[in-house]
Specification:
Length: about 325
């Protein structure tokens, strides 16, 4: 039986109705929806701890969980990291322009945030703000050596893209970031550029497996994120396929999954800004968690990141 989610249908219809060639695209819509439920592997259900967001908008069961699949084995990974010299109160950011963005976590690290009624988040902010990593910045405000605009899953592994002023010869950006920051947790969101550049899914999967394995071997708890919706009709199904891959990898490696995609799907314009790709944000208020601001994609990303970090700390740390 074919199952089509209402948010998915809305993305297609919005994309179609905004253009002129409606008839041709309707045929494409029909064909894509028919195969949407049978693309590369249904996502496995994730076991383990689930943390739900107290968001102002409607949510229903696991679909809007901030993080799922926190397995007890991650405590062993954390303890390995501590034996290797990792810092429990440090996390790293791994990604592309959605991560390498002045609106993502930087305001929190600079004290420019307003929790409103979410005072339960203050302890996790305090905990991960106390240790300075590079250039007198904490985990929130640190400019990651493994996050740059335009990067694919392959580039974060390629020494050619490492910062020569900080990284060693033949050291990938990922390994360089881990060596210098010594984090206990890594927030990983990559793949939007793989989709945009039509990187073969098998290549992307191989890269992600290396990223995850490298992180685990370093004693760092990887939190892998689904990519946000892309409000462009030709990318909708590719995002679904890619995020199924992410969910399956989280299941395979028993690592926490941050389902940012699902959180974005309930927002106006699916949380996307004018370009349909990057998350929307209220100017100067990306870490202001008022009800109005929690309708923007980047504000929800900052908000959910804090709950993800809180969940990992409370569940994984002994």
């Amino acid at each position: 039986m074919i199952r089509i989610s209402l948010p998915l249908m809305k993305i297609y219809l919005n994309a179609i109705l905004s253009q002129r060639k409606r008839l041709a695209w309707l045929f494409l819509l029909a064909g894509t929806l028919l195969c949407a439920g049978s693309n590369t592997g249904e996502a496995h259900s994730l076991e383990g701890e689930q943390v739900f967001l107290p968001l102002a908008f409607n949510q229903s069961r696991h679909y809007y969980a901030a993080v799922t699949g926190i397995d007890p084995s991650m405590t062993d990974v954390f303890l390995l990291g501590q034996s290797l010299g990792n810092q429990a109160d440090v996390f790293s950011k791994i990604g592309d322009s959605i991560t390498d963005n002045e609106n993502f976590l930087y305001p929190i690290g600079q004290g420019q945030y307003n929790l409103y009624t979410y005072d339960d988040l203050q302890p996790v902010i305090t905990y991960f703000s106390q240790k300075l990593i590079r250039n007198d910045h904490n985990s929130f405000s640190n400019v990651s050596l493994a996050a740059r605009s335009g990067w694919t899953t392959g580039q974060v592994l390629d020494p050619a893209f490492a910062d020569p002023s900080a990284c060693q010869a033949q050291e990938s950006p990922l390994v360089c970031e881990y060596r210098i920051s010594r984090p206990a947790v890594a927030l990983i969101l990559l793949g939007t550029n793989d989709l945009g550049l039509s990187v073969p899914l098998a290549t992307t999967e191989a890269n992600l497996r290396v990223i995850i394995a490298t992180t685990l071997d370093a004693g760092i708890v990887p939190v892998i994120s689904t990519v946000p919706p892309i409000n462009q009709w030709w990318q909708v199904q590719k995002v679904i396929i890619y995020n199924n891959l992410i969910r399956n990898l989280a299941k395979d490696y028993k690592i926490p999954l941050w389902d940012y995609y699902s959180l974005m799907m309930v927002l106006p314009d699916y949380g996307a800004g004018p370009d349909g790709v990057h998350p929307s944000f209220p100017p100067g208020e990306a870490a202001n968690f008022s009800q109005a601001n929690l309708q923007y994609g980047m504000t929800v990303r900052n908000f959910s990141a804090l709950y993800v970090l809180q969940a990992v700390k409370e569940t994984v740390y002994p």
